[in-house]
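Blackboard transcription, Thursday session:
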Amino acid sequence: MSALTLYDKVWQQHVVRQEDDGTALLYIDRHLVHEVTSPQAFEGLQINHRPLWRKESIVAVPDHNVPTTDRDQGISDPVARLQVDTLDQNCDSFGLTEFKMNDRRQGIVHVIGPEQGATLPGMTVVCGDSHTSTHGAFAALAFGIGTSEVEHVMATQCLIQKKSKNMRITIEGPVGPGVTAKDIVLAIIGEIGTAGGTGYAIEFAGEAIRNLSMEGRMTVCNMTIEGGARAGLIACDQTTIDYVKGRPFAPAEEYWDQAVAYWNTLHSDAGAVFDREVVIQGDSIQPQVTWGTSPEMVIPVNARVPDPAQEADQVKSDGMQKALDYMGLKAGTPLNEVFIDKVFIGSCTNSRIEDLRAAAQIAKGRRVADNVKQALVVPGSGLVKQKAEQEGLDKIFVEAGFEWRDPGCSMCLAMNADRLEPGERCASTSNRNFEGRQGQGGRTHLVSPAMAAAAAVFGYFTDVREVELLN
Amino acid sequence: MQKFEKFSGIVAPMDRANVDTDAIIPKQYLKSIKRSGFGPNLFDDWRYLDPGAPDIDNKTRRENPDFVLNDARYRKAQILLARENFGCGSSREHAVWALEDFGFKVVIAPSFADIFYNNSFKSGLLPIVLSHDQVDQLFTELFDQENYQLTVDLQNQLVSNATGSQMSFDIDEFRKYCLLNGLDDIGLTLQHAEQIKSFEQQYYQQSPWLK
Ligand code: SF4
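(Written on the board underneath:)
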């Protein structure tokens, strides 16, 4: 048999049938559900009197709309409340596993899936959310789908899909100190562009990727979609297996060895052919900051805001100028002269315990700068929050002047009360810097958790590698 | 789903690259639990000068006179002419629903984001990929001519202008078949229910830990 890529292997395992033109019916193992993209799907099932094909495959959680303060008082926005209530009702009436808003296990869908062991190596994982790519960190084929497809999976356990092409992005050698998973993925997007991965499944490989913890790998895969690819994958290794072991949804003891034996095959074969290969040197990657309104508009923290006049492609140059105008920035400005108004540490990209530790390390013994009006820390799940509190991270944050919140998507997309006001500039650990993403007129700069914490305490973008750690 | 029939319609220009789904339908409107009614909030941030929310009546908001869809010529447009990577960003199908609710049946661009492209077919919106040069040419024609219209013929995979000059486009056979016949994916898949069941039997035997 010919050498296969990791993506080929997982794909092949799940093909139920295939048409002559390559359209396949792909079997889905895990279906994650949240309140925003599911109501119309449940409604469709009910209208057509269709049962759920396999309800055990579903894990549901409200996350986008939930408040991050005073949760015991419920949701004050009636429209958001209706959406969360609708999810609760649907899950109750269909008999689904759901972590409701006040359950300790509640959190951002892409944080709780892995945390519960509901994401396993070799699975196909879908969710009505583009950052489902996160779960590819487990050598799973995971991608976001639209609401019609949510309904399709609910009714048939399958999706109609065509296979993507294979791309491998290799980070050669280690990255330097202070350079995190977030910087790696931002640098990748800067390199390939936001449409660079369109039509591909991307495998991330190389020493710097292998060296990452599972949480770091999730950060990288999370932003695959910002590089245009629906799915990003990383080979299974001991790090993966150790992470999964003992989690609530992990395989039962009697099947564990059998599962691990299979998981150990989940890597690209030597000699597997990729349609496109990209190689980046690990030591070339610096801490990154986005300057524009697309994640590809990214530069190292010690660089200057680029000049549209230097760009030959007219459409691109216009796009850059529009972005600068929106962001209120001038070409040539060094980033350490850019002052910020708010800081957001959270989102499915960077709200896990290691992210909070990295941010707390910088915040420790310092105070949020005077020009920073608000600095939010929003843990990815109730369990992350609990762990952080056991470690005393909440105290470090609160003493430094950060707000310590309840888990949810929060200011990543500002569907709840947490948002930017027009013109406000934010250092954010989330994944999208589109116009208005964090609130109408808001200006988002994407950074790593440590960089966000540094921006909070200095008030402007600062290279974390130059920040001394205090005790 | 309605059958997709040959039609001629007004073309509106969306002359910028990387139009993302947040721009197409901002998140505050995703709180709806319905599929319809998103049209008035299509491109909401660009379309109005005053901020909007689900409980604000759009009629009370000032329109942005500089935004293309507020131009009287394009209010009844059915075809959107766009640039690279249209529909990037989130997986929200609401973006497709909003375009359709406004009245668009077709989006023409040199490239689309994968999820958006896929979602479009599920609700009967036809995304057409033409080359950069072809799209450039259409933009030029559109800006040069009053009342610019195109005819879209899915059966023959052709886009033609009033003078009869034609451009052909590619489309997956299965998707074309579904659009032309207004077929629902779920019904089609359930025709293979037995095959899915026998797949499952073998699959769970092989991977019992997933059961
Ligand atoms: S944290 Fe942000 S990107 Fe992640 S699921 Fe929530 S809204 Fe989407």
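Lecturer's comment: The domain at 6-183 of chain B is CATH 3.20.19.10 (Aconitase; domain 4).
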